[in-house]
Protein: Gamma-glutamyltranspeptidase / glutathione hydrolase
Amino acid sequence: MMQFDSLYYPYASRRNAVYGRKGMVATSQPLAAEAGREMLHKGGNAIDAAISTAAALTVVEPTSNGIGSDAFAIVWVDGDIHGLNASGYAPKNLTIDQLKAKGFDEMPTFGKEPVTVPGTPAAWAKLSERFGKLPFEELFEPAIRYAEEGFPVSPTLGYHWQSAYKTFKRVFKDDIFENWFKTFAPNGQAPQIGDLWASPDHARSLREIAETKAESFYSGKLADEIASFFDKHDGYLTKEDLANYEPKWVDPIKVNYRGYDVWEIPPNGQGIIALMALNILKGYEFNEKDSVDTFHKQIEATKLAFTDGLEYITQQDKMDVSVESLLSETYADERRQLIGDEAVDPSPGEPQRGGTVYLSTADEDGNMVSFIQSNYMGFGSGVAIPGTGIAMQNRGHTFSLDPNHANALEPGKQTYHTIIPGFLSKDGQAVGPFGVMGGYMQPQGHVQVMMNMIDFALNPQAALDAPRWQWMKDKVVQVEPTFPDHIAQALQRKGHVIERSLYPNPFGRGQIIWRDLETGVLCGGTEPRTDGHIAVL
Structure:
């Protein structure tokens, strides 16, 4: 039995961890968590709760995700672990030569070019078909209700919505972006905190997906509307691209860290970065969390792992190094030898060659889900499909236009993906799902919260509350406003370039459910950095 030493973490907001027995849903928005709880109350399982929560999040947190998102899931059912990769592919008509001929030296951030096939609706259908208990349509009732009747805009949502609107108003000039403003700022402004927001078009799209088990999105009415919009604007995404899409069941990858198996989805996701960093760090003993030596080694190990990730990660069958070689003990030992007393500029090693929402759910039968979906960079590409409430993702932005790079753009290829669900088990038993959303912060957040719980015995809430750091590039490390100043100064003396952020937003927003292996009691934590909520059955 894991004994947590701390109820609180002294540098952050003092929020209690939440305990439950029969079921739990943890996510970044209260209404979405309650949608999942509603499914558990109806007799659904953790998978039903996850799908319902995810669908609701597309409505109540559109600043981070939507129907046009990608998704990944790790599912624990009946003692077995399963992975689902529902990230989309580049359109078959999109090539490096084509973009370079149009004057692009790198993948654009917004517009039609970075739009890839969304995988989220297909993820919902696949999860329900294989593991769900309740009828698929029933899972969408809360989300549709929120979209039709409206809901009050919560504080974090309102802040990010206002910020996105101001940026888009300044940046979006092409007529392809016109419908984003009609959809998300219909009265010439973004909704304020506390305003009631409704989206009947969004409700219609969710109902189409629910009634057709997502077929409408890929080969039916919604697919026609999406394809027609891109055709009108000389885009690249076609109905054929949508119709050919299929999520993939995958075997999650793991490392053992101090007796716990830490699981991630294999590439094209960046979860392997967290595993590589933990593989390096397990060669040390850490007796004190808030010490300069602990933070220094965490940062250096993460830098080394991240540099390898950025060099090698892409669609797995197109990588020229294997997952096994990146996670080998021998390679971890080699990388560990590079960590000294001073900060270094990282470079890739030579292994043997070959704005996101997160949610976690658990039910009384021991089933658990770690699920993440995202448009990327908040609202995504800035492209919204008229009459649907659907904002399209911009995942293609992470492709390289260098044909020699591992993650070079190719038609039908999956790009390096930032969103990663995590899962923890011990001795063949499920401990629970965890995740920290937020771009390239995600594997860094995974490392920090896992060490907070496993090495330093913080409970899930305290592990999430603890001030974070984020490696940016070279020797540059950003720290949160609450990060201890004396440690920041000591890290600076070790050669780290410390930048203190004025805002908590860049440091991720996570949730954790931890199951006691003896009693089955669930302990949940959610972020003080968002409108987080834990619903308990």
